[in-house]
Design a protein that fits this description.
The protein has helices spanning 3-6, 11-37, 41-62, 66-88, 98-103, 105-108, 115-134, 147-225, 230-261, 273-291, 310-326, 377-383, 389-399, 427-436, 453-465, 476-485, 502-512, 527-535, 548-559; strands at residues 269-271, 294-299, 306-308, 332-342, 346-355, 405-409, 413-423, 445-449, 469-473, 490-494, 518-522, 540-543. By secondary structure, the chain is α/β, with parallel strands linked by helices. The protein folds into four domains: 8-145, no CATH class; 201-260; 269-424, Histidine kinase-like ATPase, C-terminal domain (Heat Shock Protein 90); 445-559, 3-Layer(aba) Sandwich (Rossmann fold). The strands form three sheets. A five-stranded mixed sheet has the order 2-4-5-7-6. It has a five-stranded parallel sheet with strand order 9-8-10-11-12, with helices on both faces. Strand 6 (405-409) and strand 7 form a beta hairpin. Helix 2 (11-37) packs antiparallel against helix 3 (41-62), helix 3 (41-62) runs antiparallel to helix 4 (66-88) and helix 10 packs parallel to helix 11 (310-326). The relative contact order is 0.06.
């Protein structure tokens, strides 16, 4: 491979070296003429010879062979300044041209890939300047020209040339910097526009998918609570499991998108890990039964209540367990949570998901943490999945200040495990949280605002089952009118509706009723939507699809007093 292919250069650099080579070539020609006029014939011959070489450097640069032209150019430039300064003497101040040659390598070499050349040629200029001073400018000759001639004629020329070259260099840097940052600004704007377009697309898709999904999950709850026949139970469980699986898949895609652009924020609340582990088991039991494998729990009964973002923690466990079930055809999947140590205010837990599945080869154990990557090309075809579960696990655990590790043997199963240090929740805080879960909605009036008739039907059934008095509005304008005419204890407000959306309806309600709790029913999980919800005067939000427990606990929270 040629040196030019090893060190590719830009068109900008080729043009720069072409122009500088011709410019310094002209300066060498002028120096040669002056040298002959002063009787310095040897110096004149040297400068005339370098003119030809500078033209050759310009030729190389124009043809894209800048690697050779730059090295040749800097050797000639430094030797030219040194020899001229030596023949002219200290009085001529030719050495000030080294200011130009010291800075020039930073312009024509890449500091990222050619740092060695930058240092070498800058240090070479400095070394030659110091050597001239040490030898009293007698490096090449002991008989410099007359001091009076040097002071009268050469000194002004040297100062003007050095000043012109340095100022030209600074102007070039300024122009180059302006163009560079202008391009960066344009690229930044394009990236922001692309990001906004992506967010808008994901926001729209999130809303369009979550809205019917809310009805699927809600209806499965209602059907399950209405004493179904024994032959219907499995169908209802399958419906519920399919809805939750689709929701988990959707959440993974959206979470991965959000994690690319912003940091994850944890919402730590008092949590009973044992109880939540039991709930996680219920979610995955149907899939295990279908495959004929066991789902085991090994939970330490002595684990205290802790402060934990249970949503994110459950997301980690759900992804790990889903993966384990997916790749296990016989045997079992086991969730282990045990206490390693406990101090006064903190407890350290060991969390592990192990299976007896197909295992992961050691050479593949690093790449599975990368997005959209699976163990082999046939994995997706045989087992499905997006390849986002483990990258999301990795991101969440990083925020929790821990790291997942893996031990796996082909055809013998895998172990994914991590240690987690958590703050112990105080007993009185736990009591308040538990007390808040006891619902008492006697006489509570709710205005449910939603334009989707299926969601209205599902929501109304869930609410009326808990003895809430429910009134319906199908758009924001009707909601505003109803709040004016009737007294409600809480408003459940959809965001995207015809005629008047939830934001505008809330602003109108706040003009005459600043106190009524208004909760957004949003199928959009993006941060900009949360910000708009806060700004328009809403008190909180419930993401679709929601479980009856989520909905009722939020209503209880805002109507308790």
């Amino acid at each position: 491979m040629s040196e030019d292919k090893k060190h590719p250069t830009s068109r900008r650099l080729n043009k720069l070296m072409y122009a500088i080579s011709l410019l310094i070539g002209c300066l060498a020609l002028f120096s040669g003429i002056v040298s002959f006029l002063l009787g310095l014939n040897n110096l004149g011959y040297y400068h005339f010879a370098t003119v030809i070489i500078y033209i050759y450097c310009a030729y190389l640069s124009k043809n894209g062979r800048t690697y050779y032209s730059r090295i040749l150019f800097f050797i000639l430039l430094n030797l030219g300044i040194t020899s001229t300064a030596s023949f002219i003497g200290r009085a001529g101040s030719v050495e000030y041209m080294f200011i130009f040659s010291l800075a020039l390598p930073f312009s024509v070499f890449s500091f990222r890939t050619e740092k060695l050349y930058v240092y070498f040629f800058s240090l070479l200029s400095g070394f030659l300047w110091i050597t001239l001073a040490i030898t009293d400018f007698k490096l090449f000759t002991d008989t410099p020209i007359d001091i009076v001639i040097a002071n009268t004629y050469i000194y002004p020329i040297s100062i003007i040339c050095a000043f012109t070259m340095v100022v030209t260099q600074l102007i070039y840097f300024s122009i180059l910097g302006t163009k560079y940052y202008s391009k960066i600004h344009i690229k930044k704007q394009e990236a922001l526009e692309a990001s906004l377009a992506k967010s808008k697309f994901l926001s729209t898709m999130s809303h369009e998918i979550r809205t019917p999904l809310n009805a699927v999950i809600g209806l499965s709850h209602i059907l399950g609570d209405n004493e179904p026949r024994e032959d219907q139970i499995k169908n209802i469980e399958a419906l519920s499991y399919s809805g939750k699986t689709l929701l988990n898949l959707l959440n993974n895609v959206l979470d991965f998108s959000k994690m690319q652009f912003s940091a994850i924020e944890l919402d730590n609340i008092p949590t009973n890990i044992n109880a939540d582990a039991q709930q996680i088991k219920k979610i995955h039991e149907a899939a295990c039964l279908k495959k004929g494998i066991l789902l085991k729990l090994e939970i330490d009964d002595t684990i205290p209540y802790v402060y934990l973002d249970i949503i994110r923690f459950s997301q980690v466990l759900n992804n790990l367990i889903s993966n384990a079930i997916k790749f296990t055809d016989k045997g079992s999947v086991t969730l282990i949570i045990k206490k390693i140590r406990q101090r006064k205010d903190f407890v350290t837990l060991h969390v592990e998901v192990k299976d007896t599945g197909i295992g992961i080869p050691k050479v593949k154990q690093k790449i599975i943490w990368e997005a959209f990557t699976q163990e082999s090309n046939t994995t997706n075809r045989l087992y499905g999945g997006t390849g986002l579960g483990l990258p999301i696990v990795k991101s969440i655990l990083n925020v929790m200040k821990t790291k997942a590790r893996i031990r796996s043997v082909n055809d013998q199963g895998s172990r994914f495990y991590f240690n987690l240090k958590l703050k112990i929740a105080k007993y009185n805080t736990i009591e308040k949280e538990i007390e808040a879960e006891k619902f008492n909605f006697t006489g509570i009036k709710v205005l449910l605002v939603d334009d989707n008739l299926i969601n209205v039907m599902v929501g109304k059934q869930i609410l009326e089952k808990e003895k809430l008095i429910v009134s319906i509005a199908n758009d924001g304008l009707i909601a505003v009118q109803k709040v004016k005419e009737e007294n409600f204890d809480i408003v459940l407000m959809d965001i995207q509706m015809p005629i008047m959306d939830g934001y505008k309806a809330t602003k109108e309600i706040r003009k005459f009723n600043p106190n009524i709790p208004i909760l957004a029913l949003s199928a959009n999980v993006f941060m900009e939507v949360k910000d708009k919800i806060d700004k328009c005067g809403m008190n909180g939000f419930i993401f679709k699809p929601f479980t009856p427990e989520d909905l009722l606990s939020q209503i209880e929270k805002f109507t308790r007093n």
